[in-house]
Each structure stands twice: as structure tokens, then as C-alpha cells.
What does this fold into?
Amino acid sequence: MKTTIIKYGLFGGITGFVIFLSHLTFAKHLSFDTLEILGYISIFISLSFIYFAIKHYRDHVNQGVISLGKAITVGLLISVLVGIGIGLADFIYTKFLNPNFFEDYAQMLIDQGRGDEVIEITSVMGALFMLALVTVIGFIISLISGLILQRKN
It folds into this structure.
């Protein structure tokens, strides 16, 4: 199980890192709403490795059998690795490439009359938020994938 998690987790983490950092870096002219949509797309693409990892583990490692609990475990651990990749991309972007990102976002909220939604956030907090968000979404994808792929003896 460890090899499957590391292999697919690294694939997902690297994919998430590259896609997330790319769309933030090369799409500076896009609105925050568009960047948010691209962010979720990159998260879902990166987390798609969960399904393939569970299927691989079931079919090639565990003799065609996998329980829901084992599938969720595999998927959740992969989610953490993907979350680390995306969180690292978010940290690099907001700390080094666009250190004004959070101030610009806060100003956009104020301009829209949503100033009550502004919170003080740092690059570390943003990265940890991304890790948590990706892990929660990954859990849901793991649960769905596990329900689809589970097979008992």
C-alpha cells in the first residue's frame, strides 16, 4: 500500500503544484473569480489520481479486493500529499511571486462592499488552508471512489 500511496501521491502532488502555480503565475490578468475556478479545477485534476491509485491497489496489489476503509485510507493519504504540493505552490506564489495577493484580494472584497469578509492572512496560513481544503475534498473523492471500487472476497 505504501508504494501505491507514494507513487500516486507524488504524481498528484507534482501535478497540483505545477498546475496551481502555473495558473496563478501566468494568469495574473484574470479576475479573482476566474482564478478561484481554475484553482478548483487544478485541485480536482490532481485528486483524480486517488481513483486510479485505489483501482491500481485493488487490481495489482491486493488480488482484486479492497474494502471501503482501505480505499479511504489510500485516498486520504494521497490527498495529504496533493495538498502539500498545492499548499507549497500557494505559499511560493503568495510569499515570493505575488506578495501583494492577499492585500489585493482584500481590496477587491472591500470594493465589492464585502469588507466584513476580509480576514488577515499570511502565506503560511494560506498554504495550510489549501492543505486542509484539498484533504477534505480528497476525503470526499476517496469515499466516492471507494464506494465505486470496493470488492470483497
Observations:
- The chain has a mean pLDDT of 95.
